[in-house]
Amino acid sequence: MKKATHLASIAALFVGLAACQSGANSGQQLVLPEGDATAGQEAFVSLECTACHTVSGLDLPAAEEMGPVTMLLGGNVSKVKSYNELVTSVINPSHKLARNLFKQEIAQNGESIMPVYNDVMTVTQLIDIVAFLDSRYEVVKRPSYRYPVYTY
Ligand code: HEC
After folding, report:
1. Domain Cytochrome c, which positions (predicted)?
2. Minimal-distance CA residue to ligand 1 atom 40
């Protein structure tokens, strides 16, 4: 009897988790049409993202007016940056600030200093920029450690 209750509560937990995922902000992957990385690079330059960003492996023309930070995009990362993350970073820059150590440089009053381009950038430019940036990231596996297995 006790075991059955236990199982029932585990089942309830799973139902609960499943229910959590069905909200408006469920963890569903965003599926974008295929972007054009070359057009994305052009949009990145013409929208002057280069005022604050350099891109790994590329020497992009500088923006007319340089921003207060220079932050590298692309390069080696330990975890795949999903389209989800890239799109979120561009359309909602203040969503995730905490990882950065230099918070005072990248945010003012909790808002990212990165401009919101939502009224300026076309959806096609967004898709292309994401394809462009996605192509500049390289996933590098962290060395993994094998823990000894003790048998007593
Ligand atoms: C005025 C400076 C500034 C400009 C201009 C700017 N950004 Fe940013 N961007 C930032 C800062 C600061 C961050 C880090 C904090 C954050 O996420 O807002 C950032 C973060 C990002 C990230 C997330 C990087 C990561 O590793 O999580 C992406 C992607 C990005 N920017 C793309 C763009 C694109 C595309 C443009 C042009 C359309 C642009 N940025 C223009 C300042 C800027």
Report:
1. 35-137
2. 49
